[in-house]
Amino acid sequence: MRVGQLLTYVSRRRSGIFEFACGLSRRVAESGAESRVFGIRDEDATADAARWQPVTPCLARGIGPRVLGFAPGLLPAVLRADLDLLHAHGLWNMQSAVNLAWAARTRRPYVVSLHGMLNPLALRRSRTRKRAASALYERRRLRAAACVHALGAHETGYLRRHGVSTAVAEVPYGIELPPLDVAVPPPAWRERIEPGRRVLLYLGRLDPIKGLENLVRGWALARAAAPARAEEWTLVVAGWGAPDYEALVRRAAAESGAGTSIVFAGPLFGADREAAYRGAEACILPSLSEGMPVGVLEAWARARPVLMTDACHLPAGFEAGAAVRVGEGATGAATAIGELFSTSSADRRAMGARGRALVERRFSWPVVARQFLEVYGWLAGGGSPPAFVRTD
C-alpha cells in the first residue's frame, strides 16, 4: 500500500499539523507500507527534513502569496507517486485543488483532516475568502472524500453543520512519549529567572485565537489576589507569530503591572522545546478555539499539569484530574492561575502523572497509528469500516 500525506508546508511553521503529519508518516513507513510526503518548500523545510526520517518529503517551489499555497509542481509530483491513497491536511488553500485534481485523474480514495479549520471561530477569520472557497470547491471536496478525519465529536458536529455527510474517522492526535529519566539541559531563559522560582509555561503560536491577552491580564490579577504565593512563580511566554500581535501582547504585559514576572522567550523548537517543557512546573493554554492542541498533549507526555479552556476540546484531561479548567476572559484565567498557586507540589506531580498515563492510554503513537492504519486498510482494501468511523 502506497500512502501519501499532502500538506501545504512541511516545516515547523505548520505547528501542530506538522508534528502530527510527521509522526503519522513515520508510523506508516514502520508498518511496512510505502509512505510519501508532499508539500511546498519554505525557509524551514531543509532544517526540518530530518524530522520526517525515514521518509524524505517531496518539495515543490511555491509561487505567489504564501497564504494561497500555490505550487505548480505539486500535482505532477503527487501523480508520479502512483499512490493507493492520499491523506490531505487542512482546508482553504491550493492544496485542496491539488487533492481534487489527483482524485479526478486517479479515481482513488482520499482522506481529509480538518485540523480545527471548521471551528466557528476559525471560520470567522478571512470569512469572505472561506465562503467563496467553500462554494467553489471545499464543500465538494469534503463530500467526495472517502473519509474525513475529525479530532473528536466536536469536529464531526461542525462538519455536519457544514452540510457534509461523509464518513468520519474520529481519531485524536498522536504524541511521542519521551523518557523522563533522561536529564536535559535547563532552558536558555532559565538564567533570566530568579533561582527557585517555579515556571508556568505557554508554548505555541502568538495568535489572537490563543487568548494571550487574557493570559497576561489574568496573570496580573492572580498575582494581585495572592501576592505572597505569586512571588514563587514566573510566567514564560514562548512562541512565534505576527510581529504586530506579539507587540500587542508585550504591551498588554507591560501595562498589566506584572513587571518582570512575565518573560518572553521567543520561538522554541527541537531540543529547546523539550528543555522548556522539562523546565516548567505547569503549562497553560487559554485558547478561544482549537481542534486539539498538540501542546497540551506534549505537556502531559512530560508529566506536567495543564491549565486549559473547554475550547481545547480535551475533556478527558478534566475527567482524569490532569487539568485545571480556565474560564472565560482575564478573570477566568486569573481564577485558574490562583488555583495553581494554591496547589501543593505533590498534587501538581500527581496531576502530571495522571496526564502522562492518559497520553499512554489514548494519545500515544502506537494507539493512534493503529487506528489510522485500520482506516487506510479499509479504504484501500474494502470491507467494513472500523468501529470508530461514524456514518451518522
Strand content: 15-25%
Q: What class, by secondary structure content?
A: alpha/beta
The CATH topology of the largest domain turns out to be Rossmann fold
Task: Give the N-terminus to C-terminus distance in angstroms.
Answer: 28 Å
The major beta sheet can be summarized as: 8 strands, mixed
Number of domains: 2
Read across the widest sheet, the strand sequence of neighbours is: 3-2-1-4-5-6-7-14
Instruction: Spell the H/E element sequence.
Output: EHEEHEHEHHEHEEHHEHEHEHEHEHHHE
Give me the number of helical elements. 15
> What is the residue-averaged pLDDT?
94
Going by CATH, the architecture of the largest domain would be 3-Layer(aba) Sandwich
Find the count of extended strands (DSSP E, 2+ residues): 14
CATH superfamily of the largest domain: Glycogen Phosphorylase B
Low-confidence stretches: none
Q: What would CATH call the class of the largest domain?
A: Alpha Beta
Q: For the CA atoms, what is the radius of gyration?
A: 21 Å
Q: Which percent range fits the helix content?
A: 40-55%
- Label the overall shape: globular
